[in-house]
Amino acid sequence: METQAAVLWEAKSAWKIETIELDPPKETEVLVRMVAAGLCHSEEHHVTGDVPFTAPLIGGHEGAGVVEAVGPGVTSVQEGDHVVFSSIPSCGKCPSCAVGQHNLCDVVQLLMEGRQLLDRTSRHHVGDVDAAIACLIGAYARHTVASEMSIIKVDEHLPLDRVCIVGCGVPTGWGSAVYTGGVGVGDDVAVVGIGGLGASAVQGARMAGARRIFAVDPVPWKRDRALDLGATHTASSVEDAFDLVREVTWGRMCNQVILTMSVGRGELMASIMALAAKRGRVVVTNIHPSAETDVRMSLLDLATMEKQLVGSIFGSVNSRRDIPRLLQYYQEGALDLDSLITRTYRLEEINQGYQDMRDGKNIRGVLRFE
Q1: Which of the two ends of the chain, N or C, has the fewest CB atoms closer than 10 A to its terminal CB?
Q2: 164 annotated active-site
Q3: Is the model more confident about 257 or about 267?
């Protein structure tokens, strides 16, 4: 079938809307008509060249839609079901999945290849060229084919333009606080960077019972939004946050520091580690350029204060368990998805959506296909 998609042909270029040819789903694959897709910063790393990719690339890994067809062997969804994509698939069989660590599923090693998990070939074609799909999903298309491993059924009454962001940004930020960070009742938490991930981390810290939440971002309206979502204090920079946290906590500093800024910089790590208390945990959630290998920090401080520096992919969540859980929190009013979505765009407006993100105008922009 023919459909349309936003395609990235090379780094340092704009997304182009192309007519593509989409093959039918094969065994364990699902054809989805997309309704909405979040504009995540991960694709921006491909545009800037910070993270390599297989070209041409159909972007989008944060999406929701309606099942139009299923291949042989699909058991979890059927035609007409409303679904959300998990940005990291889970096979359910590897050692990580067996212990509930679906975010570390062995198939993650194939994410950047952009081919189908079944046979590592492509169902998406631009002319006579096979296209890769972001995170094995390709949500920036009116229709896409993906593995059942990436798809989770959701209640039909839920708005899919809200549901879509629970495929990546929300669980990544929320889980960075709740799971990777281990925020507990009475903890003091700093969240550095208030985009889709940071705003979700603020909510995760609040829901976990944090006493104080320091939201750090240079954009004033984002700091205000963080207060609406549960932050208790704000600062415009890491340097300003240090003075604020030291004063408010009487020098004890933060139990958790969660890094969710759009682009990480290694030279900031010493200042960020200084925000952490004794035995404080610094969670690196944001993506750093693949070429960046230098980090400045005091190993003496790390050792003598027993501080922890940990990485987090997809918020350490189990997508099969936690995506339904987060949607239940949304229905109960405990988790605010509405305030995270600041603008919506048509597929043809994708470049404007990313420009708005660069200009600090969005917490999360969303493409709407209907």
Answers
A1: C
A2: no
A3: 257
